[in-house]
């Protein structure tokens, strides 16, 4: 663990030991990945593959897709079709993160145990990112399973936090 490079990241995490709930947690993990693969997201991927978006502003297109997703969410709330996430046993603050690790502020993990985790990510669009981790100590866990898109967003967030730390260190000099 000494070779793990951590950066400060004030994030909220919800987690629970996998134990006998592996199937339940796996289902939710897969459902959360489908949020990215909704009908509009699929349409956009196909349109990009056919080259139909080449003359469109990508930022504007992304914003429009996200607005459509929000409308879908509001519609499902109004129709009482809202997807409920499982209530996880523990919530805590993350002190630091690395590209493959999380470090909690408090010693809440049991070494070598597997956990299902949802991290509240402050990325666009804001969402809870599902992960599976294995505890290396009472504070530190290694990420063992993460969706591809979530991994890209996670790595981008770690990199952004590293830049913040570098700027802060330069400002102190």
Output the keywords.
173 residues, alpha+beta, Thrombin, subunit H, 2 domains, 6-stranded antiparallel beta barrel, 4 helices, 40% helix, globular
Describe the structure.
The chain is an alpha+beta fold and 173 residues long. The protein folds into two domains: 7-35 and 86-172, Thrombin, subunit H, CATH 2.40.10; 37-78. It is built from four helices and six strands. The chain has helices spanning 22-34, 39-49, 58-78, 148-172; strands at residues 7-17, 90-97, 101-104, 114-121, 127-135, 140-145. The chain has a six-stranded antiparallel barrel with strand order 1-2-3-6-5-4. The radius of gyration is 18 Å and the shape is globular. The two termini are 29 Å apart.
Our count of domains comes out at 2
User: Any guess at the CATH architecture of the largest domain?
Assistant: Beta Barrel
Give the overall silhouette.
Answer: globular
Structural class: alpha+beta
Strand content: 25-35%
Cα(first) to Cα(last) distance is 29 Å
Largest sheet: 6 strands, antiparallel, barrel
CATH class of the largest domain: Mainly Beta
């Amino acid at each position: 663990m000494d070779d793990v490079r951590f950066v400060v990241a004030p994030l909220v995490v919800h987690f629970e030991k996998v134990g006998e709930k592996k199937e339940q947690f796996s289902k939710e993990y897969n459902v959360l990945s489908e949020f990215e693969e909704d009908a509009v997201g699929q349409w956009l991927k196909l349109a990009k593959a056919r080259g139909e978006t080449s003359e469109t502003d990508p930022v504007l297109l992304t914003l429009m897709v996200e607005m459509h997703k929000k409308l879908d969410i509001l519609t499902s709330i109004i129709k009482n079709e809202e997807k409920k996430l499982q209530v996880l046993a523990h919530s805590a603050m993350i002190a630091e993160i690395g590209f493959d690790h999380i470090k909690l502020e408090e010693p809440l993990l049991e070494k070598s145990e597997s956990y299902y985790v949802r991290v509240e990510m402050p990325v666009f669009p804001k969402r809870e990112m599902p992960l599976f981790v294995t505890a290396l100590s009472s504070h530190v866990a290694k990420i063992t399973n993460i969706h591809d898109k979530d991994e890209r967003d996670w790595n981008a967030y770690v990199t952004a936090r590293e830049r913040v730390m570098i700027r802060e260190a330069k400002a102190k000099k």
